[in-house]
Amino acid sequence: MITDVSADDFNVAVGGQVEIIGWLYQYYNTEPKDQAFKKKKYLESDIPAVTQLFTPDWIVKYMVENSLGRYWIDVLQAKGDRRSDKEIANDFEWHYFMPAAQQTDQVTVQSNGVSLADEQIEQVTLIDAAMGSGHILIYAFEIFMQIYEREGYSRRDAAKSIIQNNLYGLDIDTRAFQLAYFSLMMKARETNRRFLTLHIRPQVFDIPETGILTSSDFQELLKNEDEAKSLDYLLDKFRYGNEYGSLIQFEKPVDWLLIDRLVNADIPAGQLSLNTILLAENQAKLSEIAAVGKVLSKKFTVGAMNPPYMGSGKMDANLGKYVKRHFPNSKSDLFAVFMERLRAMTCTDGYYAMITQHAWMFLSSFEKLREVLKEDTLINMAHLGTRAFEEIGGEVVQSTTFVFKVHSVPNYIGTYERLVNFDSQQKKQEAYLRAVKDNQVDYLYRTNQANFAKIPGMPIAYWASDNLFRLFNNDVELSSKFRGKEGLGTGDNARFLRQWFELSEMQKGWYPYQKGGSYRKWYGNNEYYVNWKNNGLEMKSLPKSNIRNMEYQNRTGITWSAISSGKPSFRYSVQNFFFDSKGPMMFGLDAYPFQLVLGLLNSKVAEFILSFLSPTLDYRLGQIQKIPLLPVKESAMSVSKLVDSSIEYSKNDWDSFETSWDFTHHPLLSHIADDNLSHCRSPVG
Predict the structure, then answer these.
(1) 142: enclosing H helix or E strand
(2) How far apart are CA 645 and CA 643, in angstroms?
(3) CB 362: neighbour CB atoms within 10 A?
(4) What is the pLDDT of residue 328?
(5) Do strands 126-128 and 167-171 pair parallel, antiparallel, or not at all (unpaired)?
(6) How far apart (Å, rounded) are the C-alpha atoms in residues 574 and 196?
């Protein structure tokens, strides 16, 4: 591995300290991660390995400069600095800071609170609630150091203050905590040779777990039942600390004076016994819990993190139940849960920056989360798409990194960099830096986030045009004219489905079946038959089957592939077809011509609309039916004729191959006169 790592990654002078620690730790987790990925549910012990992912250096700089850096620019401007945010950022040499769009005077006044004029750098705090090996904290240290020096501090005094006052971090992984602690101590030692002798502890913590610890273990120190209840409230919060981590939150105030008294209480004098030894150990545990509990109950100026990713289906019973109860708006994935949590940990007028999967921007399962987030101001987003991490290939993991301000700034124009079409981590970084220098690049967008609410489901459709926002605002949805349905869930496809050529003509009770398939418009992908003998008696008897929407089976309609690796494609489906969830269908509610709907769905307009309604390659009914339906105009007749022709051409093409059950002869033979066809046929023996 040493030969594969750049020499600069070992060079502290160019930031190599945090690079090599982070990469070595990720490789350290490779084997347990591979083993855990094979499990249906992750155990508590699996969580650190499966959720550990080293954040690329440029994304760390983007998050920190556009959150902590932006906050300090707000402070300087509130104190009277007349320079623009771009000028101040250039002065600090923050190369990844994205200047804000030009705002109206009213917006500028609203976004710069008067209270910021009294802010001092010692009061500014930043937390990484899932810090890993400390990559974000180390770069935040460097930004804080720049600011301290501008405020007149020596580097030696600045290092002490940063470690004591400014930086906080939490993690459930003991090894990650140790590496983050080490990295911060070495960073401080770099600027203050005597730092290791000052006995200053970084404010980073390994989140503890109480296990079976209860108030009864402190009975010698408690005065009454109320104190016991207060202590049990705190201990219960950390019962599964190694699993819940930073998601632990307090619904009511904790009596920290009581907790501190218990931690520091003198053990009753007398002969040393097993009880006194256990009490001392329990005090030490309570001290750890109290230190982390105080951090979790604080509000921070800035939050920045790369949260763990884990779908709800992989959570064990404890974690799944916890997030459903405490984070119902974001329960579908752990990264979204941490979005809510970090937001709650950030103070008003502060900023929180994250890199997450981009699913929260679009999917209906995160719509309630988007409702919550609209109360804040989306300042900037670099939409990364796939291949944002060098070690993750393929098209599955799609990412975005962004910065929110915890303050609603009406009519604020946010800035968005669409980097999804750049196919490597390096190219995305270079494209982002070009956008910082040149706001005229064609992948940089500026829009008011209030526009997102004009689209059903409120997706973060920053690249939609004003005309498109108006289209959603003025016209009816497709669902008003066409009703979408999911079909059969056989429960056992290998048992109930066959390709048509696997059946003989004499087999009765088998019917044509729509099952999605590859990209194909207008007509086709008619490949399967389903066993519906005796009115589906065998399938209905299977516990895993899902027999739904029978009244819509065998009806003419429009079908498509619900899951695709590329662009959406819609097809006409004739009568006498069954269909399933992977090949859903839509059916007309009135006399509205299906050709107009099919033409719209196969158009570039619908493809563009679906790029933000359903950008995850999962074309679900809900997203499809939100497409705005244009009113019927005089040109409807010509559109219908074009669609009918497209269906006919596509059908002829489909039937020209032997994979079609309607195949009769090769298309090349169609241009040979009948009296010459005999020369093309095999001789009769």
Answers:
(1) helix 135-150
(2) 5
(3) 24
(4) 94
(5) parallel
(6) 77
| DSSP 8-state assignment for residue 204 | E
- Segment (H or E) for 324: helix 317-326
pTM for this model (two decimals): 0.81
How many helices, marked H, and strands, marked E, lie in the chain? 25, 19
Distance from C-alpha of 605 to C-alpha of 627, rounded to nearest angstrom: 10
22: helix, coil or strand? Answer: helix
Beta strand 497-499 with 557-560 is: unpaired
Please, where are the H alpha helices in 327-366? 334-345
Distance CA 561, CA 556 (A): 17
* Structure-block tokens of residue 192: 């203050």
Residues 6+ apart with CB under 8 A from 428: 382, 384, 387, 388, 419, 422
- What pLDDT is stored for residue 280 in this prediction? 86
Grouped pLDDT means (10 residues each) for the chain, 685 residues: 47 50 55 52 49 76 97 94 95 96 71 77 96 92 96 94 96 88 88 83 94 89 91 94 93 93 80 72 92 96 92 84 94 94 96 94 91 95 84 66 93 94 91 94 93 88 87 77 85 86 78 86 88 88 86 86 79 85 84 86 88 74 81 73 91 83 72 58 47
Q: How far apart are CA 350 and CA 66, in angstroms?
A: 11
Decide if 639 contacts 605 (C-beta within 8 A): no
SS3 102: coil
Q: Give me the count of residues in the chain.
A: 685
